[in-house]
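User: Fold this one for me? It's 4-alpha-glucanotransferase.
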Amino acid sequence: MDRSSSQRDQRDVVRAALRALGIENLVLSIHDASFPSATAEDTGRGSPYTEGGRAFASFVAELGFDGLQFGPQGQTSLGNASPYDGSVFSKSVLSIALSELAEPTFAKVLDPRVLTELVVNKPAGDSHAHYAYAYVGHQRALALASANLRARANAGDAAALALATRIQTFASRASWLGHDSIFEALATEHGTDDWRRWPEADRAALGPARRAELEARHRDVIDAWLFGQFVLDAQHDAFREHVSAQGLALYGDLQIGLSLRDTWSRGALFLSEYVMGAPPSRTNPEGQPWGYPVFDPRTYDANDGPIAFLTTRMNKIFAEFDGVRIDHPHGLVCPWVYDAKGRDDAECVARGARLFESPSDPLHPALALYAIARPEQLDPRVPAYADERVHDLEPSQVDAYDRLFDVVVRSAMAHGRKKEDILCEVLSTCPLPLRAVMARHDLGRFRVTQKASMTNPDDGYRSEHAEPHDWVMIGNHDTEPLLLVCDRWGRSGSTAVRASYLAERLASSPSRRERLARTLEDPTMLVLAMFAELFASRARHVLVFFADLFGSREVYNMPGVVREENWTLRVPQDYRTAYRTSLERGEALDLPAALAAAMRARGDAFTREHAQLLTELDARSVIVLDA
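Assistant: Here's what I get for 4-alpha-glucanotransferase.
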């Protein structure tokens, strides 16, 4: 029997409702930069590892979430804040909680005045990250801390020597660290991290003499890089322990792109003539010319080849996270590629092809070498990017398509993970090769409900098509927040159509649909219904982007649009007050109300069975939606 509402906090009540509905995961998606910071530690960019980051994670757990989905955590460049263009092994030094470097945990190697200066001189405002300011400031602070550590260790300081020993132990087991630290030395020497602009001799793997020369000349740079990666590893472990104690799982992000840091000296892993992009689709008719490198299928099994590279990467991810989101899994199974040397990237990506499905494409004769699908298995009546292009595959062909994806799954199993711990970011396109590989591993896809077509009953984004193993969400880091979407529906006159659709999904009986549809035309009720829809589908996994949690109208990222605000939106320092204020306006996610509406959508018998739980949910709801 349920305890009375006075004996249970929101976390207990929400998680009880999730169990009743069969929801296995309720995860908040937030990238490192978006975390809030305490005033005394705010350097202009968020981090989960700060005092403010840990406190926010506790707040998320209090609401009833059971997981956090991070974005990619790699090192980015000064001119590009996108985490999806960051390094895949080294973490971003912008995520270091600098305040801890002034504490005994890290031998007090950072003078507190350095942090104070960085905080005091930060540009005004905490709603967006000040990326360039934080980038320069963190690099400087890390260099000063590392130099202080080296000087104290050389002087025989016991605390510094103990810390140096811990760093050496960490470096000895991080096989990727030598490569990335030498890259940092070369970037310093040549004044750019774009290795394509370096002298020819430094673009490939270095000989022992050149490496020794760099290690001697740039010892300070290399030491600072090693120290920074050590700190990030230690702070991540501490954060993971903190959230685990509160019942929060951590999910990493396997970005499909690789940074220049990752591709330097590893040219043998990639095709030289083709790069990867996103194909044209219903939601993006032009496609997207990402320019990401493509693994060369001819070298998959070579020593230090693509499979070895991906295995190392996956083992690192599963050592750090409880699960992983696979960004654009098509890139591992059936990548869309285009001419790497074309003059117009936009035109090239639109005229691209799938790497393994072009046995006789006159525009791409070179791709015949890599074809898995045969000509008779292709439908020439549809475009090369269409989901229906490949209409038949044999088991041995699915084996071939699965070569890279299987590395992810095998690594997950080796680390004790379950298939439910692998999230596949399949959006508007899901061609047969990808469907076959995902079916082999019994993995679900994403259903982004704000994108659901109201005119096509077969649209994959509609929640009635969600399978139990799918993940449902209103939006993600690349979409508009819910409130902007609802505003747009209002301006276009399409609110009534959406309200009618949601009434079909949420009404407890057909006789109540018409009345509910009229109710949902109210903007506040429409927002609540959009959240309730997530919990009313058959999907057992729900993902919420942080901007929608707070009812924000700010866009986190506009894909394909270069703007300074991209990737900078943050949770405000006064997030508890901000959340409550937005909740009372009917704009933020009211979890108890959304769950109660989803439970009532199950019908009168289900409602009676869980009457006490519904009473507790209603008591915590700002708005009650009687479906």
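One thing worth pointing out: The domain at 31-254 is CATH 3.20.20.80 (TIM Barrel).
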